[in-house]
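Q:
Got a chain?
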Amino acid sequence: MAFSDKSKKKEKSNNFRLKLSLFVFSALIFGYIVRAFYLSFYSDNLKNIAESQKKTTIVLKGKRGEILSSENEILAKDIPSYSLWINPLSISKDERKKEAVLIIASKLGIKPSEIEKKLSKKTHFIWLKRQLSEQEFISVSEIIRKYGLSEQIIGFIKEWKRFYPYGEVTAHITGFTNVDSEGLSGLELYYDDYLKGGKVKINVLRDALGRIIMKMPPEEPPKGNIIKTTIDMDLQLILYKELKEGMEKFKAKGAFALAMRAKTGEIIAAVSFPTYNPNIHQEIAESLRKSILANFYQTVFEPGSTFKVFTIAVALEEKIVSPDDVFYCYEGEWKFQTKVINDVKKIGYANLEQIIAYSSNICAAQIALMIGKRRFWSYIDKLGFGKKTGIDLPGEERGLFWHYSRWYDLDLASLGFGHFIATTPMQIIVAFSAFANNGYVVKPYIVKQIISPFGDVIAETKTEMKDKVFSEKTVQLMKKFLRAVVLYGTGKRAEIPLYLSAGKTGTSKKIENGFYTQKYFATFLGFAPYDDPEVILYVGFDEPSGGMYYGGEVAAPVFSSSLQKYFAKKMVPPPAESSDIADNQDKIYPSYTSDFSDSLTSSGSYQGFSSSQDRNNLSLHDVLDSLQKKGKPIVIRGYGFVQKIEEREDKIMVFLSPQ
């Protein structure tokens, strides 16, 4: 009995242990199942951590579209390049591998602190350097072979690198991209959505032994679209060379040249100095670009005397003046309110043609005052000043042009000769297009077509005429006046033999800290051939020195030489017959005494006028011949139309008023 009881107790004990073991085992199995279920379906964070330890995704971009000239020369294209990656986790624990990578880094110009930071990353993939040059690729490949580094430690991935064949010649047009093939400036930025290629993701996997497995795509990403510009590289290269030589000759701070098809608005050349090489490292190129001020659509400055053409044209259009009207130029010095306005050429009387030809600030100011604030503002607004022209480039400036409600009379007078307004070269050349298009202003553009990788034209720019600002009569008169500038005025050096030209010089003082300085912008704006304008060209130099700073002696010769070479290069036949003007070349009216300090007394009106109605809207031209016959000095007071004439014993007083 005792044995039997003992045996039963032992059996019960064994059963209990077995059940306990089965329970514990079952519980553990259940726990593992629950944990696995949880990890599989509910713990995304843990899943992501696990995935990140064995997989890295990188994005490769397709070939960027080319940028072409009007005649299909390549201005920007992608060329093959190789980017270098490393596996930090496989390198950091091996001194020999680390030594090799440090040597490679030094060859690539990577700082030791930067490479140490990369090697400390807990990852199996990181870029060491993107878009190696050919020499860098060869040098790195030799080091890899020397140290026997495997493809699981370091390797290359083929990418595309942007290349600009003309470099700094077209830098301000093309702009450039960053290492990720994203446009940063110029056409590259403005048309980035069209130019950029497609994207494809590559998984960088690691097997159970930690070895890198690169899963490459079955085909390359889609290519970007092609941009065909309006740029004529013949003229672009001519202007680049001419401006560069001019910069050196006149020791200028900067320069620009902007050329546009007179009747279409196509920008056919655009050069700016200083410039930069967009092929160098992107970070350097970006810092250089930001430091550059000279730019044909972003530089803002007072246009100076080139603006007088709009003052005269508005006065003609509004019939405030006529071609035969004569104005008194006060011998080159006229005090208006608190300002003394000066002329370079000190003359007495001048008609409209001579005012433009000899660039009289005094007479331009008088005419602006006769136009009036509101009327003048409406025309300048229609010409596009104070607004963006709409050129297809990023960051275009609006310039500075206040509403007429904020003008004083002195501001209006200053505006007449190109002060009290700040413009861009692009705004000036667009407004000037009215004189080549029967009074219409044309919209500028620089991209003609967008072409798909398969050759289909998906977008095309058409010529767009904006407002009609001036009548054909006004335009023909203005062309005649602009021709006089080149024939016998301030722009003689802008003449182009056989083709003939017309235009206007400009010399404006620069403003610094709110004050005028003795630093200048010297410009010439014109078109050729004269009878049927083909090209409008605007040339400017920023701070020319060495004693020469007038637009007629600095910018005009570049205008002439550049277009002469361009027409010869393109074999443009000169006009068979060209109309010309030289009638007023020697007809400057005689100078007479101007008495600013004279105390006027009323001695009766000149007997040639019987009533105030007879004097209404008579110009100096209407009375000058008869007054000259008196043989006495003629003294002019005021500006505008003749309001009163007094004959004294020793002189004749003529009182003018704008109304």
In short: The longest strand covers residues 515-528.
